[in-house]
Amino acid sequence: MRRRFPRFPLAVAVLGTATLFAARGEWPWQRLDVPTAGAITVSSPFHIVRDTLHQGETVTTLLARHGVVGLDLSGLANALSFDPRRLRAGQEFSVRVGGVDDAATHVEFRTSPEERLQFIRTSNGSWRGESVPVRWDTDTIRLSASISTNLYNAIDDQVSDAILDRLERYNVVFALSEVFSYSVDFSRDIQVGDRFTAVIERLTSEEGDTRFGRVLAGEMDVSGKSVTAFHYGTGKGAGFYDASGNALKRAFLAAPVEFRYISSGLSRARMHPVLGYARKHEGIDYSAASGTPVRAASEGVVSQAGRSGGYGNLIEIRHRNGIITRYAHLSKINAGVRPGARVSQGDLIGRVGSTGLSTAPHLHYEFRVNGVARDPRSVKMEAGAPLPKNQLTAFLDSRDHLRALLGPTSGPSRPVTE
Prior knowledge:
Layout: H1 7-24, E1 46-52, H2 59-65, H3 73-77, E2 92-98, E3 103-112, E4 115-121, E5 127-133, E6 136-146, H4 151-158, H5 166-179, E7 195-205, E8 210-222, E9 225-232, E10 239-241, E11 261-264, E12 267-271, E13 278-281, E14 284-287, E15 293-295, E16 300-307, E17 313-318, E18 323-330, E19 332-333, E20 342-343, E21 348-351, E22 362-369, E23 372-373, H6 389-406, E24 414-416
Helix pairs in contact: 4-5
């Protein structure tokens, strides 16, 4: 008969003995030193090379520089609605290189802010292309600055690159000047110490690029008066309105040309720079670079377009209520602008020049009422069209929301939370 030993007391004894040796750091047998392997670092078999298309260089040359073989952009272009001839110097490319044969396997570049093209090498060595949309996220920011010289310098000097880069700051200036183009002549109305505040949309791409979206609201303290603008509506019905719901759009633009400064204004007499003697000056001179676009101040019918003595190249437009506008010293009169032609407000009609009795590029602009030269700022214009009554309540709610985002005009430029 086999003798049985109690298992449970034996197990307790073994565990107790092991615990005692472990606590004392001693073992009844020799421990084996097992070497520990170091951490294994796995590096990516691929790397990204970025390059820029040089002046006078072809895309084929750039791709060959990075070992891209067999990629025919022209052959893939039709399917992607893309024209390789539109690529210009400065275009950035990224090429992924690596793998067993250390070859280029992926080419990528942006064709627009909204689209990226990717070309991927397949297992048989051919290439396939695809269009990938670029995702942009929208946030709302508030810009505010004091004006010492002009609107552009105010925004450029007081809005940091962290908020918007220089190019996008310029786009903001252009948009704001369009919003207030019926109420403010930025060349004559702006004074030192005037302020502006604007709430705009800023777009940020998945790659970290930022760009200006659109103006949502703006307020300008100009020459002692406050002018506000609130965006309202969608699609073709969208526009800017004052706090009461009247459209900012008026019968006439405040200024018909993009400007740098006014060289001389309306006066009874001034020393003519060419003739050398005092001569009645019945207009406003907008000094601007040659070629600067000139716009029709209001809708009307062209009554004259061509050479006209000291005016040089002149366009004259007849409007309602006995008003005539003249645009002189033009370097170019646009095709289609001829006597009898109808023009709409804001239409491009010509380019700034220095033809006729002129010493430097500028636009001579006349605003005549029943044949008498008037300063357009002194002429009472019709108010903008009001919103329909059935839209006024919704507009006022939107206005109050945007007004809260505008905040005080002295506040800093910063992101805002809607």
